C-alpha cells in the first residue's frame, strides 16, 4: 500500500495528461441521493427492489445489497428472470442525475475510455453534461452477446463508456447477483467470448480502479485477466486500486506486495481520491476566461488518418496552409490541418500528439511571421515540439519532418527551431503553392512510409 504523496500525484497526472490512463468505475463511486443520504447505486437499487417485491426487511442483512435481495426473492420461490425488467424499470423511471464526483471525473478531458462496473447510465450522463454537443457512446458486454470496441482508443471520436458487467435492460444481460457475476467472469476467460479490442486497450494502458469494492479473488482475477501475463512479470503499467477497505484484506495486500509490484494500493476512499485528483487537475488546467465556451469548441476528438500529412501553421499563415492542403489533396494525398485555426485548446493536446504520431509526414509552415518573437508562445509550437520528439527517436535516414518555407526564411540559422527541423530538407513553396516537382517528392515519401508500415 502507498500513501498518495506528491511524487505519486505528479506521476499520475503526467500519465493522465498523455491519455495513458483508463478509469474503471465501481459501484462505490456512483451514488444516488435518497432520503437525505448518498447511497451507492447498488445499495439504492437493492432498497427499491426490496420495496417493489415487498420482501420483509427482517430477512435481510442490516446493510443489504442487491445480491441479498435477489437471494431472498429466490428463497421464497420467486423467479430470477422477472427481476431484470423490474430493475430496468427502477433505474429508467427514477430520473437520476449524476453525482458530483462523476461530474468531476467527467470534466477531466484526457479520459476518453471508461470501464463501468454498474448497470446505470449516470457516467454517460455526466460526460454529456461536461461536453455539450458530444454524447458519450456506450457498449454493454454480455456473455451470450459479444459486443466490443470497433476502433482503438486513439481513434475514438467521442467518449466511450464500456459496461463490462452489462447495462440495465429487460433482458438478463447484466449482473444482479453473485451467480451472474460468476458467469460474466467465466466468459471473460474464454478468448472466443472476451471483448478482445477492449482488453487490448486495458493491457496497453495504466488502470485506475475507483470504488470497485472487489472481493479478494475477483481483484486477483481481474488484474491477471487484463495483463495477459503472470502478475510477477513486469509490464511497466500501473494498476492503481483506490479503496479504503482494502487495507483490511491482509491476504490480498500481502499477495499484491509480493507478486504484483506494479499494482499501487491507495487506502483512501474513492470519493476523497477523485476530489483530490480533480482539484490538482484544475490547478494545472484552469479555465481561461478568454477561452471560447465549450459549445463553440470542436465537439469531437482530433482524428488524423493513418499516414496523412500533418500541416501545422501559425494562424497568420492560414492562406498558405490552405493552398498547400489543396495542392496535396489534388496530388491524391491525405491531409490534416486545423482549418478553423482554433487548435482546440490545451484540453486537446494529447489528441494532437496522437495525430502527429499517426501521420506519415509532418509539414510545418515556416515564415518570418511564424518565427517572430510575438509568436514564441503560440499553440503550434506544441505541435512542432511533439514532431521534434518523435523525429528524435527515428533513424536519420527516415524522412518525417518536411519544413514548408513560404518566404525567404533560412531555417538553418533560425535559433527558435528544433535541431530536427534545421537538418531536414526543406521545400521552398512561395505562398504555399505546391509545385509538381515537390508533389512528386511528397508522394514518394508517403509511399515509403506505407512500405515501412507493411514491413513491420
Automatic annotation (TrEMBL):
Please list the residue ranges annotated as the TIR domain: 309-432
Leader peptide range in chain numbering: none
Gene3D superfamilies given in the database record: Toll/interleukin-1 receptor homology (TIR) domain (3.40.50.10140)
**Name of the protein in its database record:** TIR domain-containing protein
The organism encoding this protein is Burkholderia ubonensis subsp. mesacidophila
Q: Which GO terms describe its biological process?
A: signal transduction
Amino acid at each position: 500500500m502507498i500513501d498518495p504523496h506528491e511524487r505519486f500525484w505528479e506521476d499520475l497526472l503526467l500519465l493522465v495528461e498523455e491519455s495513458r490512463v483508463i478509469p474503471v468505475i465501481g459501484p462505490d463511486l456512483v451514488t444516488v441521493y435518497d432520503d437525505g443520504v448518498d447511497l451507492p447505486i447498488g445499495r439504492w437499487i437493492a432498497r427499491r427492489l426490496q420495496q417493489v417485491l415487498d420482501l420483509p426487511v427482517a430477512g435481510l442483512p442490516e446493510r443489504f445489497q442487491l445480491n441479498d435481495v435477489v437471494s431472498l426473492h429466490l428463497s421464497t420461490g420467486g423467479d430470477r428472470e422477472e427481476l431484470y425488467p423490474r430493475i430496468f424499470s427502477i433505474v429508467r423511471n427514477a430520473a437520476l442525475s449524476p453525482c458530483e464526483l462523476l461530474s468531476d471525473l467527467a470534466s477531466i478531458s484526457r479520459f476518453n475510455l471508461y470501464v463501468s462496473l454498474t448497470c446505470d447510465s449516470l457516467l454517460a450522463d455526466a460526460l454529456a453534461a461536461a461536453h455539450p454537443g458530444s454524447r458519450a457512446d456506450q457498449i454493454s458486454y454480455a456473455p451470450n452477446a459479444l459486443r466490443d470496441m470497433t476502433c482503438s482508443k486513439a481513434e475514438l471520436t467521442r467518449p466511450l463508456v464500456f459496461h463490462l458487467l452489462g447495462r440495465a435492460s429487460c433482458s438478463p444481460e447484466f449482473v444482479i447477483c453473485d451467480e451472474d457475476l460468476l458467469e460474466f467472469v467465466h466468459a471473460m476467460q474464454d478468448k472466443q467470448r472476451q471483448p478482445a479490442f477492449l482488453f487490448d486497450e486495458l493491457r496497453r494502458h495504466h488502470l485506475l480502479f475507483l470504488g470497485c469494492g472487489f472481493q479478494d479473488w475477483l481483484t486477483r482475477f481481474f488484474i491477471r485477466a487484463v495483463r495477459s501475463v503472470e502478475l510477477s512479470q513486469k509490464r511497466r503499467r500501473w494498476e492503481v486500486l483506490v479503496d479504503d477497505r482494502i487495507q483490511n484484506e491482509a491476504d490480498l495486500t500481502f499477495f499484491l506486495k509480493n507478486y504484483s509490484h506494479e499494482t499501487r494500493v491507495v487506502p483512501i476512499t474513492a470519493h476523497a481520491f477523485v476530489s483530490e485528483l480533480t482539484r490538482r487537475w484544475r490547478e494545472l488546467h484552469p479555465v481561461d476566461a478568454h477561452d471560447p465556451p465549450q459549445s463553440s469548441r470542436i465537439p469531437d476528438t482530433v482524428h488524423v488518418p493513418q499516414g496523412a500529412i500533418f500541416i501545422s501553421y501559425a494562424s497568420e499563415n492560414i492562406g498558405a496552409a490552405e493552398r498547400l492542403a489543396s495542392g496535396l489533396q489534388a496530388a491524391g494525398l491525405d491531409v490534416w490541418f486545423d482549418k478553423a485555426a482554433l487548435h482546440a485548446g490545451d484540453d486537446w493536446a494529447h489528441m494532437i500528439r496522437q495525430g502527429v504520431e499517426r501521420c506519415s509526414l509532418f509539414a510545418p509552415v515556416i515564415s518570418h511571421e511564424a518565427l517572430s518573437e510575438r509568436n514564441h508562445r503560440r499553440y503550434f509550437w506544441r505541435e512542432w515540439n511533439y514532431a521534434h520528439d518523435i523525429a528524435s527517436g527515428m533513424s536519420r535516414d527516415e524522412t518525417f519532418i518536411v519544413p514548408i518555407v513560404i518566404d525567404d526564411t533560412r531555417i538553418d540559422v533560425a535559433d527558435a527551431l528544433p535541431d530536427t527541423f534545421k537538418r531536414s530538407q526543406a521545400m521552398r513553396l512561395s505562398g504555399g503553392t505546391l509545385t509538381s516537382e515537390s508533389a512528386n517528392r511528397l508522394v514518394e515519401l508517403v509511399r515509403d512510409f506505407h512500405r515501412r508500415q507493411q514491413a513491420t
